[in-house]
Amino acid sequence: MSLRSVFSRLRSSRKTPLDAFKDKHNPARQTNDWRYYLVSFLVILGLLLSALWLLMLIWYQLGAYNPITWLAYALVIGLLTSLLLVKTKPKLASKIINNTFHRSFKQRTIVTWLGGLYAAVWLLGLGWFFSIEAKQNRDWMPEVSQRVAYKRDAANPDLITFINVRNFDWHTDEDATAHWETRTVDMSKLSGVDVINSYWMGPLIAHTLVSFRFEEDRPLAFSFEIRKEDGESFSALAGFFRRYELSLIASEERDIIYTRSNARGEQVYLLPVSHLQQSEVRSLFESYLIAADELNAKPAWYNTLTSNCTNIIFYMARIVSGERLPWDYRIWVSGWLPNYLYDVGMLDANPNNSGQPWSMDTWYERAHINPKVRGFDNQANGSRFSAQIRQGIPIPPLADSQAKADAEAKSAAKASND
């Protein structure tokens, strides 16, 4: 044996008790150990979360009864388990692998191969996810079977004729007589905007609709919804995995609000947005026309977090109103949208110009639709339903100028926060 080999073995020999004692009381060593465990924890957490995402993608895209689902599950879970076993129990993993292949593999080699194989499988799943395209031609449920379209009058661009405006007669939450109608509205007659929140799963989650008011005409409501296939049900988790196409519905209020407040028994609230100019209302209305054009040209996916019924409206409204609608976490917690509007001054804290401002609790009490339309005859005129759901709610006038709208909104926001 050469002297070089002897010195090499001496350098790599086990530490003496004195060395171990020094390491134990060495702050730098302890810091390195702390960082090592933190990095290891983050790596393991990242692996678990990435595997969970991939497994859920496979589940929601292929379904529980597809044999490919279970083969993919076995592959992903097997790779992840092997990788974690090598990292946490290297001696046991090496023994199992070496006994299986009848040769000696180093831990680093095993980790490299398993990590590379897992990364390849995960990237393959990611590529598959982005390759899934939304479609227009599926067996849709009746209430989302048609796509709204429109035409402008050649002589008067303010006259918009909508095709496929929904006006169903709802008998139960699942049974309705279908009516798809054509309706013409005059954008020069726009007089305001109402936000409707329908709570269907606790106080945090609500479906948000927008209804446009017109002078001497009944309102027209718009709703971004999932385009469910026949027999399909909604899952918030599935909404993260390109499971539902996005649909824009233009509807009469006696249909799209009645079905929630009366047929389904959801708790529905109507909130008139204050301190807007007609130009802002008109621009928001035009945004819905653009959205209809885009969805008709190319279908899009619904996403529970980034492309849902609430934040799509916020994105469009912010283009119109800019900094008057600051970013806020409540944009993603749809049930708190009314509180957000109240705090930024878009829901008037003093709607009657009286000395006693309205609290948010008062707004919720006055804006609650369900008691106003309990037992409503859905065969009645649509204008009657729209009038009933606005009982006891002051309808704000449009602002004369941008400066006045800004000033009033700031004053309302201050009053709401006092």
Automatic annotation (TrEMBL):
Entry-linked Pfam families? Lnb_N
Q: Which UniProt keywords apply?
A: Membrane, Transmembrane, Transmembrane helix
Asked if the keyword Calcium belongs to this entry, the reply reads no
Chain segments carrying region Disordered: 396-418
Q: Which residues cross the membrane?
A: 36-62, 68-86, 110-130
Keyword NADP part of the UniProt annotation: no
Which InterPro entries does the entry link to? Lnb_N (IPR025178)
Every copy of the Lnb N-terminal periplasmic domain together lies at 177-334
Q: Where is the composition biased (Basic and acidic residues)?
A: 403-418
What is the protein's name according to its record? DUF4105 domain-containing protein
